[in-house]
Write a structure and sequence with these properties.
Residues 202-220, 223-244, 249-255, 279-300 and 328-334 have low confidence and may be disordered. The protein is mostly helical. It has a domain at 2-48. 62% of the residues lie in helices and 0% in strands. It contains six helices and no strands.
Length: 334
């Protein structure tokens, strides 16, 4: 029936097409169009009708239906499992990416925190250094004081050098003076032995000259004898006496200064300690020979007559012995 309807419809359509191309009559053309329309409608009805399915008769219908249902459910379960697996994989992937991103951010934050901690430590060190600036200022003030002390030490060194030079000159002058005095004593003793030990006038305080410097230790100056008095003096008679050379007196006894009293209870001092007020060499100490202490220190002024008489006697003794008196060397402090 279906096939017949389709064939009728196809034939009507072909006939209507032929009439449209071959005929010019309007009435025929209208009939052909109506026929084609009805043919199409009949073909549509014929094609729309489906044959009813043939249901097999017997006991296997329920089993087949159950099998189909199970297959459908299994297919649904497989699709659901695949969908869930895809969802799980996607979830794991997204979670891993999120965790990696969070780890990177956390690592960056940790590094920044470590840098901030280092900066805080540096700030603490800076605070300590700033607090130490006050101590540095005190040290600088102490350095200024030390510089002043060093400048004072330089001045003290210059004073010590000057004192050493003066002491050296004084010691050399004392040695020279002691040598001259020793030579004069030997000459006078030799002359006294040759002349038979004539009695000499004792030397008194008035026989010493007043012009005695402190550097020479208090010994009197020997004046030079006038030429007229020396020529007019008559030499005494010479007595033949065996010459006995006296032993020279030790110079150490003359040059040995008196001992300086030392306090036994005073504490020991070091080289770095400042000098005590009593030990500062600001005042010159008198240097007097031990042998000159018996003459009573500095001599008193001598009258001119007595001075000329003593000078004439000494000049006569020196002229008899053939020794020319030498002038004293006097040193003056600048």
């Amino acid at each position: 029936m279906r096939v017949a309807g389709l064939l009728v419809g196809c034939g009507a359509a072909v006939a209507a097409t032929a009439v449209v191309f071959l005929s010019d009559d309007p009435q025929v053309l209208r009939v052909a169009v109506v026929a084609v329309a009805w043919a199409c409608l009949g073909a549509a009805f014929a094609a729309g009708r489906r044959p009813e399915p043939v249901v097999p008769e017997g006991p296997d219908v329920a089993a087949v239906e159950a099998e189909l249902r199970r297959a459908h459910e299994a297919e649904l379960e497989r699709e659901t499992a695949v969908h869930r697996q895809a969802e799980l994989e996607l979830e794991l992937q997204v979670r891993g990416e999120a965790e990696a991103a969070m780890r990177r951010e956390l690592d960056g934050l940790r590094s920044e925190l470590a840098g901030l901690r280092g900066d805080l430590t540096g700030l603490d060190a800076l605070r300590t250094e700033v607090a130490a600036i006050g101590a540095l200022r005190a040290d600088l003030a102490e350095l200024a004081g030390l510089r002043a002390d060093v400048a004072e030490m330089a001045g003290l060194r210059a004073d010590v050098g000057r004192l050493r030079a003066e002491l050296t000159e004084r010691h050399a002058g004392e040695l020279h003076h002691a040598g001259e005095m020793h030579v004069e004593r030997v000459v006078m003793r030799t002359q006294s032995v040759r002349s038979g030990r004539e009695p000499l006038e004792p030397a008194t305080a008035a026989a010493w000259h007043a012009d005695v410097t402190r550097e020479l230790g208090g010994w009197p100056r020997t004046p030079e004898a006038p030429a007229a008095v020396a020529s007019a003096t008559v030499a005494p008679a010479t007595v033949a006496v065996p010459v006995v050379t006296p032993e020279p007196e030790p110079v150490a006894r003359v040059l040995t200064p008196p001992p300086v009293p030392v306090d036994a209870g005073a504490p020991r001092r070091r080289r770095t300690d400042p000098p005590a007020p009593a030990e500062q060499l600001t005042v010159e100490r008198p240097s007097v020979h031990a042998a000159a202490a018996a003459h009573g220190g500095y001599a008193t002024p001598v009258p001119p007559a007595e001075y000329e008489a003593g000078a004439a006697r000494l000049a006569a003794i020196l002229a008899e012995s053939g020794v020319t008196p030498g002038g004293r060397r006097r040193r003056y402090r600048e």
